[in-house]
Amino acid sequence: MTIEKIPDMEVDVEKNVTDDQLSVKESILDSVAKGQGFFKSQQVGEKDLTFSEKRDIAADLLSKNVPLFLQRYWKFIKLEDTSYFDSLDCYEVKFYVDEIKKFRDPRKNKNSVKNRRFGALRKMIKEGAYFSDEEMKSRNPFMFDQFIGQHLSESERVAAYKSQHTDEKFSNFLLGQVERNYANTLYEQQKSTDEAIEEEEDDDDDKSVESDESELEDEPEQKQPVTPDEKSRLRSEFTNMMYESFMAGEDKEFDYSCVDYNEEFDPAEKDVDAEEKYFNEEV
């Protein structure tokens, strides 16, 4: 629920404020400037506003019209910063402060965040870019190789490389090399983590079961060819893992605030059953 129009009105929130309250004000403006709220209309091609410019616009509005400031930016204000508005005896201000408290209550907001991430997930799946092979490989190169990469044929590898390096300029090549170096480092880190887990599991098995394998010479492991159906199953399993990683908030480079605080991803009534089914199937 929102209030459609708030007339210009001055609410003197800074009258007799303490140093602590001024500190809270600074925190509010920082949070708002980092958010995805509306600051001013911009023309196509116009440069994005800087953090400082957004902060100045927010500060000006806060000094002139507190209810309108809250209408625009309440979703970006921290629960602990709502004390800044305690001295104001104004219905609109109290309304939005209550909205902040409900929004920031983890008991009430948990399902809202899940719903919004699920909505964003469906949109990104449809758009294709975020869950393309190239992007998923960049986020988890080791698991991509385990489930998909090592099973690609030579022709599939060549086709994938060409699709990722069409008309590549030298500057882009250098940047791509930096990204590849980072991916290799990330791959080794993830591989080491996976091997450590496997080694720990093997140690536990050795403690419970005695084996005569130590008396036998280790034989090189022969890779069995993977059938098309198995390839499809492995790809589906890996992709689902990436979906679950996104839903769990584990994609470190992704800005979840643009989803978790965005009503655009709230489900329509017809979609509620789909979300409930998805969450009920979670392990």
From TrEMBL:
Residues 195-220 have a biased composition (Acidic residues). It holds the Pfam family CCD97-like_C. InterPro entries: CCD97-like_C, Ccdc97-like. Residues 189-236 are annotated as: Disordered. It comes from the Eukaryota. Residues 115-282 form the CCD97-like C-terminal domain. This is CCD97-like C-terminal domain-containing protein. It comes from Oedothorax gibbosus. The lineage of its organism: Eukaryota, Metazoa, Ecdysozoa, Arthropoda, Chelicerata.
